[in-house]
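Title: Prediction job returns without error message
Component: structure pipeline
Severity: low
Priority: P3
Assignee: unassigned

Description:
Job completed but the reporter wants confirmation the result is attached to the right record. Sequence as submitted:
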Amino acid sequence: MLRRLLWSHWTATFARVGLAGVLGWAGMAKLLEDQGTRRRAILAYRVPGISVDLADILGLLLPTVEVLMAVALLVGISVRVTAVATAALMGVFIIGIISVWVRGYSIDCGCFGGGGDVSAAGRNSRYTQEILRDLLFMAAGVRLWLSPRSRWAAQALTSSPDYSYRGRHHSAV
């Protein structure tokens, strides 16, 4: 029963639309901020080799990619590719959070806007929550990568057997 629920088209639809919402929200929140705020969020990670100029480029590129991925997932095109990209992006975010945590920095991850150095109060619980949240989003991306078939996806209109909807009782594996 649990396996059937996990691999249902409705679960894939929820994962696809949910990830689209998260990526869209995160990307738009950052795009609506000024360049200085985006720069501060990226530089707070203190990654060697990231200059101010590169932080400015990344500060615009990352949220733009997030919004484009959100649109692809919401519409249901290139679901498998976008799901892999989403899972990989979440992995990068997790590594970044673990990196600043291990090095003793206290930052706002900037995932949904904002970002930069913050007080150390609640650092451990904040980082734990952010990592668990991103692991959940990563799992949703992996789920869609393994079986991208979902309801209301433009991809379902194609003849590709990887994406077409074949009925309620069709196995997704």
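Comment from assignee: result matches the submitted record. The chain has one domain: 9-155.
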